[in-house]
Write a structure and sequence with these properties.
By secondary structure, the protein is mainly alpha-helical. It has helices at residues 3-24, 36-52, 56-63, 71-74. The radius of gyration is 16 Å and the shape is elongated.
Length: 76
C-alpha cells in the first residue's frame, strides 16, 4: 500500500465518521435528501479508491491532460 492510497482511505473514513457523528448528535439530518449526501458520496469514493486504486476523478483529470505523478518525484 502506498501513502497516497492510505491517505484516501483515512480521509474517506474521517468524512464518513464526521457525518455519522453529526447525525447521531442531531446536527445533521441524513434521513432526508440534502447536500450532505454529496459529502457521503465523496467520502465513500475516497474510501473505495484507497482500497481498489480506481478513482473516477483520476480518469477525468487524465483526460484533461494532467499527469499522474510529477517528473521530479519519479527521478528520486
Amino acid at each position: 500500500m502506498t501513502i497516497n492510497r492510505a491517505v484516501r482511505i483515512i480521509a474517506g473514513f474521517f468524512i464518513l465518521l464526521s457525518l455519522i457523528l453529526a447525525h447521531l448528535q442531531g446536527q445533521a439530518d441524513l434521513g432526508r435528501v440534502s447536500w450532505l449526501w454529496f459529502t457521503v458520496f465523496v467520502g465513500l469514493n475516497l474510501l473505495q479508491s484507497g482500497f481498489t486504486n480506481a478513482c473516477l476523478m483520476d480518469r477525468i483529470l487524465a483526460r484533461f491532460g494532467l499527469k499522474k505523478t510529477c517528473e521530479t518525484a519519479t527521478q528520486r
